[in-house]
Batch of 2 targets.
Target 1
Amino acid sequence: MSVITTQRHGEVLVIISDNPPVNALGQAVRAGLAAGIAEAAGDDAIKAVVIRCEGRTFFAGADITEFGKPPVGPSLPEVVDAIEQCRKPVVAAIHGTALGGGLEVALGCHYRIAIPSAKLGLPEVKLGLLPGAGGTQRLPRVAGVADALTMIVSGNPVTAARALEIGLVDRVADAGSLADAAIAFAREVAGAAGHPVSSLRTDRIAEAANHPQVFDKFIAENSRKLHGFDAPKACIEAVRAAVELPFEQGVKLERDLFMKLVSGTQSRAMRHLFFAERQAAKIDGIPADTPVIDIARVGILGAGTMGGGIAMNFLSAGLPVTLVEREQAALDRGVATIRKNYERTAARGRMTTEQVEQAMGLLTPTLDYGDLADCDLVIEAVFELMEIKKEVFRRLDGIVKPGAILASNTSYLNIDEMAAETERPEAVVGLHFFSPANIMRLLEVVRGASTSPSVLKTVMGLAKRIGKIAVVSGVCPGFIGNRMLSPRQTEAQKLLLEGATPWEVDAALTEFGFPMGPFQMADLAGLDLGWTAEGSTSSTIREVLCERGRRGQKTSKGFYDYDENRRGSPSPETETIIADFAAKSGLPQRKFSGDEIRERLLYPMINEGAKILEEGMAQRASDIDIVWLNGYGWPAFTGGPMFWADTIGLKVVLEGLARHARALGPDFTVSSLLRSKAEAGETFN
Ligand code: 3HC
Ligand code: NAI
């Protein structure tokens, strides 16, 4: 059956797309749309047209799988132009998500009607692109420059209600009656004398034409967020063209910019990440008919930094949580922090006070382990000590109902050892949340030796329900993320002893695109994590910094000195402390270039990633990219560590490691997978 069909309702022709799962605008859809418009144009009995989609959504964009392949006509810009030039009014009937090329089709239509749950956006920037079918020229003309800039540069969609406010849709229909409402709308406008044509409008861009400084202001306000990315700059340039140039010239500029971006490495990297994120949710070797366990109540043990944040994920998703602590004071503190976090969100307008109370109403704080009995999943977030974890698992196993899942939030420890303490090792799994757990989207799901497919499938589904991006890891110290962080930290410390400053090391990574470097990160987290004054041995730079009261941002000094706005500047005291350690180390001192620092920090990470792959600890290279992107701020425009290594060439990485062999030390070993792939000219992804 054709993906596009037409139906006649009196004098209205309805063009219907049915191209699951998301009605992507592949070649067959484009050709069908063009044919539908031609059918309407050639039939005098037809006075108006409706374009709508079957299934879960209106067109969610161009078909991304076609990028990089030879184009087959008609192109999307041609189709959008044909719709706009149709002499009979065309109404877009929008449900689900009208995204990218989908919204561009809607902008080519003369009228737009949407249901309240619909979302409309131009997310191309998230794929390293800009809208390439007239979106940068039509959206400002329809919705005004300020909103168009925000939508196109952020890539975030707006709701139907907001779309109505800014003039992007003309009407909002009742949820159940979109098809009929669109036909009625089409009948209504069929007889009108003229119809709004997006590309001909000037009313919404007139103001910006008189105030061109809006663009400079927008760039200044967003420069930090946009740093390193090519696509947002192109988006801004194209919207500026909508204001300054005639439509045809603006469209040509948009086209040129699109072609440049789509063939560049940044967009290739970001498209890789789009598919990598979806791939990560798929687990090898789990049959499709594997049953899932119903999770109706979650138990959490430990109301500290992590336990509280983890609880918020479930409360926000409407799941009741039983939160257990060992002492009242800690419990009260934990609950107060949860409330404070919600209230802060409400103060920023992102939650109503009703929603705060709703979430808090789902929370049952208690000191009694027995209250966990009826939970379907219990996650422990107590101290990071194996003896304590083992005891906790023995105890939970005796209390929590049979069939329920027992999970650990450990960052480094062996899940299998915990599972061995229970009578239900198949129900034990690692759920490694990242701090702050209510905000960070990454979740490492640690698959133990005995974890059952059903438990794994259940927690992957649950992760999606609470808005996390889950990646499966095998059992190894630090799992995927922290295991790869470890060689980076080691090299960062060593570089200090060889003559590099913390600020040079951090700058090398921020220039690469990380939001912060290792020493800025340490200052933010607090240098005294796991440090006690009594046990101090003054044997590391970090210990001495702590002894001198330099414990990070919270004490206004750590590696850096901080002003009242938490802006850091290089500290002479830190430099002296480092110089003392460097002198004691006897290592020769020298200057390092940014490139050399990056090689020392990043190549050993790639090497560790390769080991993780060859040991089967990650299912695929792209899963490692997803971990580093969402857990550690690896810059998206490089596609993640493994994709980046592929881009620069594995041979280059291998040669770099050989060049730095002496500095890396005798304990450093090169991954055999990295070596064999580099020698064979292969890639990880
Ligand atoms: N092209 C090709 N495949 C797509 C696609 C697209 N635009 N959008 C989604 N898919 C595929 C996904 O890869 C996935 O495939 P899989 O089942 O084999 O893994 C399947 O459709 C379902 O997608 P999700 O799992 O993401 O489904 P959700 O319901 O969670 O989300 C969505 C739906 C919000 C539409 C989300 O898929 C999405 O954001 N899609 C991308 C939207 C986008 O970026 N559009 C712009 C494209 S670029 C463009 O239009 C250029 C133009 O300006 C010229
Ligand atoms: P925390 O010290 O802030 O909180 C631990 C809480 O557990 C304390 O409130 C303590 O009173 C409570 N507790 C200890 N033993 C208990 C028991 N037997 N029964 C009930 N409650 C008990 O520690 P944090 O940072 O929340 O870490 C918890 C776990 O999460 C650790 O395994 C840690 O490795 C892991 N983790 C920590 C991250 C972080 O950034 N802090 C990130 C990811 C994982």
Target 2
Amino acid sequence: MSQRLTRFLRLSAVGAAAALCAALTAGPALAGGGHDDGHGGHGHHVKTLGELAAQHHRYFGSATDNPEFVDQPYLDILGDQFNQLTAGNALKWYQTEPQQGVFDFGPGDQVFNFARQHHQIFRGHTLIWHNQLPDWLTSGTWTADQLRAILKNHITQEVKHYKGKIYSWDVVNEAFNDDGTYRQTMFYNILGPGYIADALRWAHKADPKAKLYINDYNIEFTGPKSNAYYTLVQQLLADHVPLDGVGFQGHLALQFGFPDLQPNLQRFADLGVDVAVSELDIRMILPADDAKLATQAQWYSDVVKACLAVRRCVGITIWDYTDKYSWIPQFFPGQGAAHPWGLNLEPKPAYFAIRDALK
Ligand code: XIL
């Protein structure tokens, strides 16, 4: 555990406690945060997920998105329960550099400032990804030199904007296909695989203290894609590229079975990097029923236990905490109910299972 994370976490424990006190003073509107679990009576402090995680020197965080910032009951839980936030969209390239060389950190700052006010550490997501790119970039024809300069400037400006204020960056997102071959993105096609090391070096130069991650899905289990990352991490470290961690997104689905997460996290940690579960959600084929929700709760608990069992697993981020603002139904039609809180911001069995696993 780095000193930096420990310091951040100390601040966040204080912040979460302060936020809970504020909520208690404000009245009984504590959906999800202040229910009585049998351990404390009225007015008794029920520890938040962030506070429970901090006891293990971990964070427990959530993604959030700008349209949700009008929903005060949602924000109350967001500010109260978590000691880490990720902006779900606000720091993607289409938002931060909508025209070439013109940067907009308004949406990112909105999420970042909320996190800071609530003493939550912040993960930056994401600098290089093949999705949600601005039109000027995807419609252009670029030489390798031009694209390299564009990438360098994008990374440098964005990372500098949050320099010294951010815990980590997902520098490169989803660089591999499921079969372990490099994804044929415009970056790979024009620059070759070296763009990953370049990106990490530029990001490190712009903020030497930020932890730098590569991040992907379907690497929770051992297989060709996770093996490709394993080899890449070995190579990057051997080349002294500034890589600090690997993010395991964790977009799990009940119908596909639970991954061999803990041994897989452990083998990366053993290479000498941090690991994090960076975008956890556990979807199911709808309709949800009690049996599926119970299995989901068990899986959430098992993810928490896997992280706690691996010393270098620094924390878990859920990809928004409530079904109310889930990205799943739109991207996986017929599936959903993936989050620990329900459509009315009510805690589901998964929430209680996470708490128990963190105790
Ligand atoms: C998703 C967002 O949650 C959606 O709002 C958006 O429409 C698409 O992207 N992997 C990632 C995230 O790394 O950035 C994605 O977020 C989910 C999959």
